[in-house]
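User: I'm preparing a small set of examples for a lab meeting where we compare how different chains pack in three dimensions. I only have the primary sequence for this one, and I'd like the structure in token form so I can line it up with the others. Please keep the answer compact; I'll paste it straight into my notes.
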Amino acid sequence: MTTSPTDEFLVKAGRFFARGDVSDDLRTVTRHGGREGDVFYRDRWSHDKVVRSTHGVNCTGSCSWKVYVKDGIITWETQQTDYPSVGPDSPEYEPRGCPRGAAFSWYTYSPTRIRFPYVRGVLLEAYRKARQVHSDPVDAWAAVVGDEATRRAYQQARGKGGLVRSTWAEVNELMAAAHVHTVKAHGPDRIFGFSPIPAMSMASHAAGSRFISLMGGAMLSFYDWYCDLPVASPQVFGDQTDVPESADWWNASYLIMWGANLPVTRTPDAHFMAEARYKGQKVVTVSPDYADNTKFADEWLTVHPGTDGALGMAMGHVILKEFYVDRQVPRFVEYVKKYSDLPFLITLKDKDGGYVPDKFLTAADLGDTMEGAAFKTVLVDSHTGRAVVPNGSLGFRYNEAGKGKWNLDLQGVDPALSFHGAGGASTAEVLLPRFDMGQENGEGGGVHRRGVPMVPIETKDGTRWVTTVFDLMLAQYGVAREGLPGEWPTGYDDPAPYTPAWQEEITGVPAAQAIRIGREFAQNAEDSGGRSMIVLGAGTNHWFHSDTIYRTFLAMITLTGCQGINGGGWAHYVGQEKCRPITGWANLAFALDWQRPARQMIGTAFWYVQTDQWRYDNLGADLLATPLGEGRFQNATMIDTLAQSARSGWMPSFPSLNRNPLELVREAREAGVDPVAYVTEKLKSGDVKFAVEDPDAPENWPRVLTIWRANLLGSSSKGNEYFLKHLLGTSNAVRADETDVRPQSVEWHEEGPAGKLDLLISIDFRMTSTGLFGDVLLPAATWYEKHDLNSTDMHPYVHAFTPAIDPPWETKSDYDIFQDLGRKVSELAGDLGTVEDLMTIPLMHDTPDEMAVTGGVVKDWKAGEVDLIPGVTAPKFILCERDYTAIGAKMSALGPLLETVGTVTKGVAVKTAPEYDLLKRLNGVIPEGPAAGRPAIVNASQACEAILTLSGTTNGRVAVEGFRNVEERTGQQLADLALDNEGKRISFADTQARPVPVITSPEWSGSEHGGRRYTAFTINVERLKPWHTLTGRQHLFLDHDWMTEIGEQLPTFRPPLNMHRLYGDQGTGAEREVTVRYLTPHSKWSIHSEYQDNLFMLSLSRGGPEIWMSPQDAEAIGVKDNEWIEAYNRNGVVVARAIVSHRMPAGTVYMYHAKDRVVDVPRTETSGLRGGIHNSLTRLMIKPTHVAGGYAQLSFFMNYLGPTGNQRDEVTVIRRRSQEVQY
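Assistant: Understood. Below is the structure token output for the 1223-residue chain.
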């Protein structure tokens, strides 16, 4: 082929436009260079190594991430994609992640990063001055806090800047001195730690909790404090929140999202919900606003905020009428007979011309004198008509005679569900409480009259009338049957409790829609074998009466036989609660390997008391009582109920007594008296009192508080301004007047204290409000700079944290910080040496303690109704020997109790001597000192190994032995659920290499056996293991005296509190104002307060504080979108920008949780201070039934039961403010 002259010219001419070498045949042009501009981009996306880690934030995602490192610098992160397959019939768990997680590495080198130790300047100056005078740091600290002027000076500086750099040596000395002084001067139970959600980062949590516990301090609970705890769960199931993993949503054929916004709060898992629609699943959302999840829904129920319980009651009315009365669904009837308390007998007693439900009939009532008889409940066998005591109730759980009988095997008995139409049955009019009326005068509601069939039964005290829980349920829900007396709705269109028409007037949901959804939910459960599911969350759980709301949902689930069924049941997701290797974590965290028990405190009650919010509380306990009550709360305030709960041993209360417990033991020994007997007599005489009976007295103040892995004062501090005023003693925007009502059993000081805490320590990797208000601020390693463990309830894998880089600057991991602090305390504690500590410990769940309050009958030793008997009518008093010079050594080694005693989780005991020996080989042993020869946990990797080795979910041998233990008690086969994994042990290295699925274990109620998706209570349903309740079944009826007093024996509806009646008009009247319901749901661009200050999230959101409001409310005050507004009520003030949106209903505003005060927060016109956080407008309110205890499932365990930090009943006033803001 020849080249034309034209072609040759064009090729050669190209050299004038782009340099290159032309080949002789003119076929190629070779050019050199030209990619220099690409170098930056190619270099940016290259890396030296990739490290697997995860995020320790309370988001529940627990996503495994690839962290990329170049030249020792973290450059970016992407999602891991090596999760085990779920199987061919389900979507996969990967890729997992969200935009928030993908932005985390920004924090590593961000301006918010805390790089060095800091101390409040006023405090540090005073301490250094004292050290010049005192050679002993403990004496120096005593001099600082002993000078009231000095103490108040640094307290009043809190939150106002002035943090100065210090050294690790100096801050460790200061902190250790403060702890040692507090133990000597006030007692170890004046030391507190707060760190939430161990599942986020187990070793980091355990390190600090272990230190606090070894000191004898108290760890504060968080699940109830965050109001993540649904109190209905222990009430109904006797279990804390156990729920399905997200892949089980795929198995549901009917899904209601009720107060849970899955795409926002469960972002990595929301695809299961979205994809299930393609195989026919119906999706329903219930929310007051047009939420992100609503666009996925087939139907949207726009319920008025806080009225969800009315809708639940109406749907329950439909289910009971159409599936139990009009016709009986065999599967439903069989399910509730076996797995619920519906067939059990309830005694009736005379009241106001009718009857009221009283107590569960027990074997003791029938004359049985055997051990546990008072906790063995009774039903009637429909075959014989005789009363029967079936297996499985609490009375079979702990005694020798009950071995093999604590199970749900009915042994041929067919429980009678109802006495309607039965031979020998009579009828009775029953009086039942209702709360949909009279709220303008109080919260106690009124009474309505219904009817039940009843039969006589001979008891040791004579003839008693009894009915079944099922018959009471039909009466409560207003489902009429022929021949029964009382007032009954005539149909669904009759607006009487609790019909669909009745709920429409309250919720705004059309009656026809409530009927249809209730009917469809049950019909689907019948057709699918129980695959109807309700996903619940903060939207329904953060209310004062959230327990009543939840009980209406759980009733729907139980009545339709959905609980314990894959694809069915309740799915409560608020908080990353599932610490799967719970046994190993708990034993390390509370130092149970060295000493038992540990001090643990209900967080909400602690904050309510110590921030003095009780001094402003107009809601007395008596205002909640039903007219059918017995006057048990007459003239009682909420703090009175806390005091009674504490002295009865129902709930923990720390500080415990008004004396240093070390001094009390010393006095008793000097007097030659047993310390327990000594304190018992002192309490009876009144010479010693419970600290909660005079919480404002200086001897009863908390003194040292350490916060890590948390932003208390920027995220969870309900009643934030009261924290600032009373706990911290600094500037605040409290606008409330103190209540005129005085407590009966608690001392009132005319002036509330300002500044209870001597020392507030904050440990964090970024600056938050907690750091701004702290006295000591320590720089923590981030999640990409340490070893740790992470798990969740959303999937069955345990993830590792692995350091991609060493902690930069002077940062340290939480684990190392507390190891160092423990060693420093030991160094300074020479004067303390070994002492005896008298611990005041409550009656505990999953122990025989829960049989202390027989029949739930309340008797108060202080009122002379019963004698003070420790461990029965009062707390347990337990002696503990503490060697404070050995704290450091004990921090770094596993103690002997794991070798000699073993572990106990939820009542399941396991001998762990083999694991103890294994950990010696895996971790090595301590060479010398008090812990010589014991397994080392000097570093976080060793701690993680110990956590995994000691837990049944990650060690098959432990799981099998635990199941063998339960088999002995239940007589049912269980060990096979873990037997195929008996030789499997998940090591820390395994979790660093890949996502590792856990092993089925008695630590949890569900099963992953055979690769199935986890859901709660499958072991109960399939293997007949009882629930941890009085009857051993799911409870619809509760008979503790305090439950009866406030009218909540059965599911019911209670509206949001009438705050206007309680506290009056909150407006100023100065300008155009609008009063609105104030809610704080979870944010799309943050996880709590994490990420909201992240540059990427600030770019995606509007940045800074904002309040969402409806166009109607905005128009009422003349505000436009993005203009500045102020919101205020008696609790405080917030300044924010208005977001005016049609998705918001009129009368309700949202301030998303949680915008901290570190970004774009100007001064307010109302207070003159910088605008508060979202919780500046909230405050705590205690519900008495949340502190009832000592009785069956209503017994304390940390994060299992306790008062909730609810705040959604609040209202606020909003006005447009000047658009010129100052900072």
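A couple of notes for your slides: The longest strand covers residues 446-459. The two ends are 81 Å apart (CA to CA).

User: Perfect, thanks.
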